[in-house]
Structure formats: C-alpha cells, structure tokens
Write a structure and sequence with these properties.
The protein contains 10 helices and 19 strands. With 424 residues, it is α/β, with parallel strands linked by helices. The chain has 4 domains: 63 residues, no CATH class; 94 residues, Beta-lactamase (3-Layer(aba) Sandwich); 152 residues, D-Ala-D-Ala carboxypeptidase C, peptidase S13 (D-tyrosyl-trna(Tyr) Deacylase, Chain: A); 76 residues, no CATH class.
C-alpha cells in the first residue's frame, strides 16, 4: 500500500502531461498502460479526465464510485472557505475583561484570553514558501499579548485567568478518527484557542554516561504535563528504541526505551489534551514572569456541544446561553479589550493546509464555516455549509459523504466525478 501511495503523484503527473491534444483512444490506451504496472494492478482505481477547454469527458473509469478521499477532503473544505469566507479574512485573538482597571494597575475582575480560531498562533513563518519554517518562538504571540498588558499598566488581577475557546463548540475530534492518531500531531485536538498547532515538541538526547536516564526537553513548556521518563542511555552502536504514550484524558507523558550514547537526538510532536487549558497555563507563566500577580485560579471557558441546541424549547427560553459558561452580552456589557492580535489573511493558511496537509487547520476552517456562515461553530454546522456550497458548485449530493474537514475520518467518501466538478 505504501508503494502505491508513492506512485499516485507519478500517475497524476503522467496523466496531466500526456493527455493534452491527443485522441480519446490514445488516452484510454495510455491510462491502461499505466494501470497495468504490477504495483497498480491490485488497486481499485477511479478516474475521470475532462477537457478544460470544452468540458468534454475524455476518459472515465469508476468515476461515479465512492472512494475514501483521505486528505483530498481538504480540497473541498478550503474551496468552501475561500468562496464563502474569503481569502482576506483575518482571525482576531484578544485579552479582555468585564471588570475595571484602576489607576494603580489593579484589574478588578477576570482576565480572559479569547481565541477565535486563529490556527497560526505559533512560530510558523508566513507566507509558506516550499517548506515549513519556524523562526519564531512557538508562543511569541502570547508573549506579545502579555507585553501589551504590561504596557497597559496591568499589575494585579483580582479575578481569575480564563482561557476562552467558546467561539467553537468543545468538539475536539472528528467522527471516524483512529484512536492511534490522537496522541500525535496528525490528530491534534481542535480548539478556537490553538497554540503551536496544539502540540508540544519533545526532544530526547542521551545522557553523559551509559546507564543514566536520557534528557527530555519539552517546548513550549507549561506546568501542565507530568513527565515519566524511563529512557536509558545505552552504549555506542546500540539501536535507538523510544516509545511514548499518553492515555486519552491524561496529562501524564510516559517515555521509555533506550538511546545510544552517540545519538544525535530524537524529536516528536505530541498532541495536547485540552488546548485552552494548556494556553491558560502558558499565559499565566508569561504574565507572572512579567510581574503581573494573579490572585484567582486559572480555568477554561468552553461551549459544550449539548448547549448548542435546535430544539423548540430554546426558542421559548432565550435566557439559556449558547456560549457554554459565557452569558449573553448586551451592548451595555461589552468587554474591555486590553490586548489584541490579528492574523495574516486566510489565504496564507489555505496554502499551508493544502501544501503540507495540515489536518488541524482544515478542521478549524470547517468549524469556522459553521460559525461564520451557518448555525454554529460545530462539525455539523460546518458540514451543513459545505453541503450547500457543493450544491451550488454542481456537485451531486450522492457523490460524497463527509464527516470531517481534514480527511482523517475513514467514513468520508467521494467520487472522482465530484473532485473534477469541484476543481472545474
């Protein structure tokens, strides 16, 4: 299966370069030749070739059969986002309060870090140029926000520090995702408050002497995870074997195995459990490092999925909040914004999503579609908007079934014809 996956780009390139200005019979013959290769004969192929000049179908094989699209799902999500939300859309992250700041620098009220879906609160360089560059510190945006608070004169916070990701529902994972993915970067949980792609970087280096435990370094570090390090340094010439585990719902990282004395080091990206909770811990550290004293506790503000309801009862109970722990705000009760950060245009992240196949960012866009153009910032809210977009694009409803925005779900299905219709 791995060899077939590597041959797919070659197959697409051959088709793209060889199918110009040639007859239909020649096209059929050349495709048949390509598919007769030993590594491809055992696969089940769906193909549709359409002329861009006149719209004529030049070749079709299983074009109306449903296939698992995997990351091709991102084409549909990003196309809808560009068409409906627009390439110039900017995300805004703020630090707010419903309290007051007195002349002595005392904030009487809670301090709230509010995320609205910015996927690039990280060290990633934008625009994306052929490879991912991370020249900034992973938490440089949080550092900027903390510096703004110092400039505003904040010295004490009488209330709590709250990390608010209620812009989207607390719906971290998609239907049909593999449990094996959830510990790693590919399956990072989705949140409206996303720091460093909702992962931590783990660097493992051998100790100075054989038999000692290896050095484990985590970036960005927060007082959030408990590290159980059982990796032993072994003699030169031995083979590195490192295993990492974090049980779902746990904040304990267990690392075991061995690393040779002369090893250059191992690097892994591990998914967070609750991104907003992690952001709260990080932000508190940054504030305290700058001398800001927080007297209250740190916690999160989520929108529970169950609180977003379409039942008739909600229409006759307007006092029920759709924002989880956050009450509805009247015009007279707008928060005081103490610090803010605005992202680069959405188009920059679409390049990242489609060039490196960034799962988390695609999932954020799906929820953003629901929040900005649909009924709610949920998976289903986004899928509802996506279905409407595909209907307008002329993609038949029975030619696809999507359960997420990234393609991690094994339940997603799409036909070759649907892909062609979208790209046209």
């Amino acid at each position: 299966m791995g060899r077939i996956r590597h041959l797919l780009p070659i197959l697409c390139l051959l088709l793209a370069t060889q199918l110009q200005a040639i007859s239909q019979k020649v096209i059929e013959k050349r495709i048949a030749t390509i598919l007769s290769q030993p590594d491809l004969t055992r696969g089940f192929w769906g193909i549709e070739v359409v002329s861009l000049s006149n719209g004529k179908t030049l070749f079709a094989q299983n074009a109306d059969k449903l296939f698992t699209p995997a990351s091709n799902t991102k084409l549909f999500t990003t196309a809808a986002a560009l068409a409906l939300i627009g390439p110039d859309y900017n995300f805004r992250t703020t630090v707010e309060t419903n309290g007051t700041l007195d002349k002595h620098g005392r904030l009487i009220g809670d301090l709230v870090l509010v995320g609205r879906g910015d996927p690039n609160l990280s060290g990633r360089e934008l625009p994306y140029l052929l490879r991912t560059e991370r020249n900034e510190h992973p938490i440089h945006v949080l550092e900027q926000l903390a510096d703004e608070l110092v400039q505003k004169g904040v010295k004490y916070v009488d209330g709590d520090l709250i990390a608010d990701d209620s812009y989207f529902a607390f719906e971290r994972y998609g239907e049909g995702w593999s449990q094996d993915d959830l510990v790693w970067a590919d399956g990072a949980p989705v949140s409206a408050l996303t720091i460093n792609d909702n992962v931590i970087f783990v660097n493992i280096l051998p100790a100075d002497r054989v038999g000692e435990r290896a050095f484990v370094h985590i970036t960005p570090f927060a007082d959030y995870y408990r590290i159980d390090n059982r990796i032993i340094t072994t003699p030169v010439g031995t083979v590195r074997k490192i295993f990492i585990n974090r049980e779902p719902g746990s904040t304990v990282l267990t690392l075991w195995g061995n690393t040779p004395l002369d090893d250059a080091g191992a690097n892994e990206a591990l998914a967070l459990e609750d991104p907003a909770e992690f952001a709260a811990a990080l932000f508190r550290q940054l504030l305290e490092k700058r001398g800001i004293v927080i007297y209250g506790r740190q916690h999160t503000r989520h929108t529970e999925l169950a609180s977003i309801s379409t039942f008739t009862v909600t229409a006759i109970a307007p006092s029920i909040s759709r924002g989880g722990d956050e009450p509805s705000r009247s015009l007279q009760n707008q928060p005081l914004v103490l610090a803010s950060y605005q992202s680069k245009p959405l188009i920059e992240d679409v390049r990242v999503i489609n060039k490196v196949s960034q799962n988390l960012h695609a999932e954020i866009l799906l929820r953003l579609l629901g929040r900005e153009k649909g009924t709610a910032g949920t998976v289903e809210g986004g899928l509802e908007v996506l279905r409407g977009f595909l209907n307008q694009a002329g993609v038949p409803a029975d030619h696809y079934a999507f359960y997420d925005g990234s393609g991690l779900s094994r339940q997603n299905l799409v036909t070759p014809h649907a892909v062609v219709q979208l790209l046209r």
